[in-house]
Amino acid sequence: MASLTFDNLCQALSMSFSPDKTTRNSAEAALASIKGIPGACHLLLQVVSTKTIDPSMRTAASINFKNTVRSQWINKDNPALQVHEADKPTIKPMLVELIMVETQKNIRSVLAEALYHMSISEYPHSWPELLPSLLNNIRVGGSNGDATRVYGSLYALRKLCKRFEYKPTPEGRAPLVQIVKEGFPLLREMLGTLLHQDGEDVGMIVKQTIKVFWSCTQFNLNTLTFEDLRPWFNMLHSLMAKKLPAESMPQGDDEREKWVWWKVKKWTIQIMTRLYSRYGNPKATEAGLESFATQFSTTVAPTFLEAVCGTLALRSQNEFCSDRVMMLCLSFLDTAIEQKATYKLLKPHLDFLLYNVCYNVLKLKQSDIEAFENDPHEYIARQNDLMSEFVDPSMAAMQLIEDLMKYRTSTVAAPLVTFLVTILNNYTNAPPQTRDHLGFDAALHILGCLQAFLKKKKNNYVDSLPGLMIQHVLPCFNSSVGFIRRRACWMTTQFFNVQLDEASFRTLTEAVLQRLNDPSLAVQVEAGKAFRYILEVPGTENSLLPVLPKILNEYFRIMQEISNEYVVSALDVIVEKFGEHISPHAISLVENLSRSFLQYCDVDDDEEDMEAAVAATQCLECIATVLRVVQDNEALFATFEPMLCPIIVKIMDKEGELIDCLEHGIDLITFLTYFQTKFSPMLWDLFPHIFTAFHEFAFDYVGMMVTPIDNFITKDFEGFCNRKTPDNVPYIDLVYGMSKKVLEAGEMAEEAEIRKALHLFLSIFHIASQKPESKPFVDRYVHSTNDITIAKLQEEKDKDFATTRVQCYTVIGSLLFYNAELEMGELEQRGMVEPIMKKWIEDAAEIDKYGSKKATVLGWLALLSMGSERLERNGINPAVVVRGVIELGQSLSEDYNDRLNNNFDDEEEDEGAMPPMPPDGFDDDEFEGATLDDAGDEDGDINIAGNADYQRVISGDPMMMMGGFGADDWGDDDDDDDFESPLDNVNEIVLIEDVLNRFAAAEPQKFEAIKSTLPAETLNQVAGLFAIAAEARTKATTSV
After folding, report:
1. Residue 84: what are its φ and ψ, rounded to 5°?
2. What is the 3-state secondary structure (H, E, C) of 231-280?
């Protein structure tokens, strides 16, 4: 921009909306160039404040201002672009005033976000006047009746609170405590004057006030006592009980859901539900707040319960209640049934709660039916939406029913089951034209969700379940009502393992198969999900073999119509279950799954994008299952390559748009390279794409990438050595580029990733040691291998853990075995023979992996083969090397007999493995961590105080309450070198005997001198090793 003026800035903002790309790019470049120019932020705010300017330009100015603040308010990397310090004292009050008076919602939101980013570096130390200014604007606006100013001040105050509400320490929350101390008296007084007013502006102010309260109390009370909060509790109760004027309420349900007063109720019940979950049980609350919890649970919660129940009764009185409020009220009751004081009040009203509220909530709404019939994709998306748990009252209603059955069984179970069975019988016995389909569907829904309870032997319902399926579910498969047919399929997923007679189970199986071709897509999808459970019944797959092609075709057809992860997952189970019978269909499976993957990747609709992405990933998992099942049929893999290679290339494209699929893409390359003995040019062309992905976006995946790279190198070493990229880069250079990047990445690379990168050197030199013809080519890389490995070894030399050092020793040992003279020359040239060997010998006790032990032994044997004089010249005592070889050889020989008989298993028992699953019929009746306080008193408190996660939640741990993970939840499960190696064919015990015998023959006096220094135990070990070597030679001779 030639010069920064108001008019020039407006022109650039206007041009940034131009449909012409050149004009738009020019404008965007001009706007980007104003960073660091004195007065730029002032001009942007001036544009925002000028109401005569087009709203889109004002919005653009606000966004530019926010982005400037976010990136340039403090810029340590490039101070020249930082907002000028001289501008800041005037920008801050100007921004606050604009937030106070702005009426356009999106602009106010953007400006408040800018304030938030400013506060990170400014408040409270450099901006102490911010809080007094906001509170004063609330006070002045309230006195003058200026609702816009009051609301804008509250909006900014909430942003300020959010800056500190997640801080875990008292020091971090100190500014929030100050806000509570100075602001709560004013907010409490103002809220009290607004409780009985109904205007839209009043509702906005009330909503924002209680949102500030939420941010100040959701994780910690921040020095507030019960007496401080008692007036707030009373006001929140008044808001919950407030009858909303029908004449002011919008007419449509969608508009009512968004109406500010229903949002007020939503925030009110959300606050009380959070407080109740933390302070409802004095025995389980955080230390020091037991008295607060006692007062809350005995005075506040019971009083609030009445208002909650009144709200839940609205729908039964043909009045409106928003879904979110219904959901939160039911969640409040879910906590109430666990506490003795509130359960006692609730118990007389359980019939109303279960049969008038929960049951009716679980009925399909008219909008659900319309979507089912007219927009099945939307209906299916709703059914699979995991986020619905947080907004859908039916989820909360079902959770409440389940918890009542669990905790208050004797009171609830029998009457509820009787109620549901009566509905089923009435439906079955009624003429088709008078049947209550919605009620019947809801009853089946409840019974299906209670399947775990109903299947427990002690509850005495197990024997009735076959009758439920035969009498009420099986007929539903042929219902004229689509959503009833879908419910029948869903019930199959819940009760597939009920003991049906053979004829009934066959009828059920046939019914599910027929629904795969149902007129309704939603039914087809549910049938696709149900069929996988049918296959869980032993022996089912054998009876279905004749129709397997038809089944697969139905799944392919459904997958073409909709992207649904559960359908693809079911297909995965089918492939696994039918196992060896899949081979004739493998090509068709891979072809259709590949096509579906590409189709799902091209979904443009944002709403369907997530579902499609998950389904695409599931396609890749299913393809991997097919490859695993047909692994013995190598001829098929050549047919798969034209289908799979383009997919892998797409996944590894440098843009990284399919990074969520990368793990599965790497798995596919691994399968293609592991189960084939010959590699086609098409398969080799994938090799560079691995490195493109690594360098562009997938550094963290190097651990997975090493496996297929290792397959490429060791299974076709000649192809690896001879191939280059289109840019004439040898493939071996790609490998070295990857290893170098990882090993020089410092803290960016995990130890496991470093070890994997070093393993790539092992892949090359182990196979090269067995292929003499490749040595002239590979010899050229010994120097750079030493450069990289020794540099890493030097970094690691003083660290407490030797894991990475051991991997470096493994590389050096492999180099010595590959070409001892060349490697020794490299070490001597660097003056590193003595320091490396000294540390290597010290760390020998830390070498616990078979591969690393073997490489060390082979490397040290190579040193001994060079003669004692060469070793001593480099400061190495041959006796120490000999003893080390014998001790490591003894360790390797302990499982030698197993390996000799091809039964070698280097896997150790996993101490962290899951305990065995309980046997069939095991009755897991107890809810872990939850008990009734008084034995036999079902009206008592539910005690979950012993649950550690619960204790973290109620103690206000923000990470736990937000579903976060602690440091201990992130582990390195990579325990590295369980790779096959060409050196597995080298018998190190035989080689120990050969080298020691040659040493004794070449230098008898030196050898005898060394023997004299060895303890008797070591000499006995030598004899044992020689015996094993003799046995190995004999076995090798007789097997020829």
Report:
1. -65, 135
2. HHHHHHHHHHHCCCCCCCCCCCHHHHHHCHHHHHHHHHHHHHHHHHHHHC
Asked whether residue 445 is domain-assigned, the answer is yes
DSSP 730: B
The pLDDT > 90 percentage for the chain reads 76
| Alpha helices, H only, 74-218 | 88-101, 105-122, 130-144, 147-162, 174-194, 200-217
- Same domain membership, residue 314 and residue 386: no
Q: SS3 of 724, please?
A: strand
- Please report where in the chains the tokens 């609830």 appear, as a residue: 412
Q: Is 529 within a domain?
A: no
Structure tokens at 282: 């004095």
Structure tokens given for 515: 């629904």
The enclosing domain of 424 has a CATH number of 1.25.40
Q: What angle do CA 263, 268, 271 make, to 5 degrees?
A: 125
Alpha-carbon dihedral angle through residues 527, 532, 534, 537, given to the nearest 10 degrees = -170
Give the domain-ending residue among 339, 355, 371: 355
Identify the domain boundary among 492, 515, 538.
Answer: 515
- pLDDT tens digit string along 576-629? 999 889 999 999 999 999 999 999 988 765 555 678 888 999 999 999 999 999
- What per-residue string of b and e applies to 50-85 under the rule 16 or more CB within 10 Å gives b? eeebeeebbbbbbbbbbbbbeebbeeeeeeeebbee
Q: Are residues 414 and 502 in the same domain?
A: yes
Which helix (H) or strand (E) is 932 found in, with range?
A: strand 931-932
Residue 773 CB contacts under 8 Å (≥ 6 apart), including other chains: none
Radius of gyration of the chain (CA): 36
Residue 919 lies in a domain: no
Whether the Cβ atoms of residue 454 and residue 465 lie closer than 8 Å to each other: yes
Domain interval for residue 230: 225-355
Question: Looking at the whole model, is its pTM more than 0.90?
Answer: no
275 and 318: one domain? yes
Could you identify the residue written with the tokens 């008989």? 901
Looking at every residue in the chain, the average pLDDT score rounds to 89
* Distance linking the first and last C-alpha atoms of the chain: 85
Structure tokens at 211: 């949102």
- Per DSSP, 125 falls in state T
Domain count along the chain = 2
Tokens at residue 98, please? 């604009």
Phi, psi of 329 (to 5 degrees): -65, -40
370 and 501 co-located in one domain? yes
Tens of pLDDT, residue by residue over 825-877, are: 999 999 999 999 999 999 999 998 889 999 999 999 999 999 999 999 999 99
- Asked if 731 and 690 touch (Cβ cutoff 8 Å), the reply is no
Residue 801 placed within a domain: no
Dihedrals phi, psi of 724, to nearest 5 degrees? -135, 160
